[in-house]
Design a protein that fits this description.
Elements: H1 5-17, E1 20-21, H2 22-29, H3 37-48, E2 52-59, E3 68-74, H4 76-82, H5 95-113, E4 121-124, E5 130-132, E6 135-137, E7 141-147, E8 152-160, H6 167-183, E9 193-198, H7 201-214, E10 222-226
Parallel strand pairs: 8-9, 9-10
Antiparallel strand pairs: 1-3, 2-3, 4-7, 5-6, 7-8
Length: 235
């Protein structure tokens, strides 16, 4: 099957982020286009070819606020082309995946605003996973950013927190990051600051408390912020 370049880029975006709304696909693939009908047309072709599946509508928020949008993911056929491993059918929206995509889009918006350099480096989900001396760390995103206002290079590991992990789970995650930090043998050029991005202030204060309790000597390597404030919190 011959796949046109615009449709290939849609499939690559879906393979990278696992699940995207129509608006997110527009921002990731067609943001230079003046018309949003382009994304609708390409998605229709991909559905007709059996390469993507469409889930229920959801109310869009975050970086793509607006009316209800469809949610898309790769079909089993699309998965076999662009991903490896078993394909798991899913009919419900993965809001964690959509929030990760929103966070990445906000970085693109900061580039457009002129305070982040456009040649930033990003790894998403399994691209960002590392194993350091037996410690597996699995951030949702790893970023290398150049803040043009402060003339500073930033190294960031993003943990999108939906408030579902309890204290033992967060403590285990902190322990693994600290183990990787103290045993890093060149896996990272510069060990990243870990940003936990949350939905509300109450969860933010809870995570800050757990960080102080579990890793008081390494608090400078962990930050907590609202997902809606990222990446402006890096300014």
């Amino acid at each position: 099957m011959k796949i046109s370049e615009p449709r290939r880029r849609v499939l690559v975006a879906l393979a990278r982020f696992n699940m995207l709304t129509t608006g997110q696909i527009y921002e990731l693939v067609f943001r230079s286009s003046k018309s949003r009908t382009t994304v609708d047309r390409q998605l229709r072709y991909l559905r007709d070819d059996g390469l993507v599946t469409r889930l229920e509508r959801r109310l869009a928020g975050g970086a793509n606020a607006g009316s209800g949008q469809w949610v898309y993911r790769l079909s089993a056929s699309g998965w076999r082309i662009y991903r490896t491993g078993p394909y798991h059918s899913r009919r419900s929206t993965d809001f964690h995946a959509l929030t990760v995509a929103d966070t990445y889009i906000r970085v693109l918006n900061a580039v457009d605003a002129g305070w982040l350099r456009d040649d930033f480096y990003a790894e998403v989900e399994d691209e960002a996973y590392r194993s350091v001396r037996g410690a597996s760390i699995r951030p949702d995103m790893y970023l290398e950013l150049a803040n043009l206002e402060r003339r500073k290079q930033l190294y960031v590991a993003v943990e999108v927190d939906k408030g579902t992990e309890n204290r033992p789970a967060i403590w285990d995650k902190l322990d693994r990051y600290v183990h990787a930090l103290t045993h890093d043998d060149g896996v990272y050029e510069v060990f990243p600051v870990v940003w936990f991005l949350v939905g509300d202030g109450q969860r933010a204060e809870q995570l800050k408390r757990w960080i102080r309790e579990r890793q008081p000597r390494y608090t400078q390597y962990f930050r907590v912020g609202l997902v809606d404030d990222f990446p402006d919190c890096l300014r």
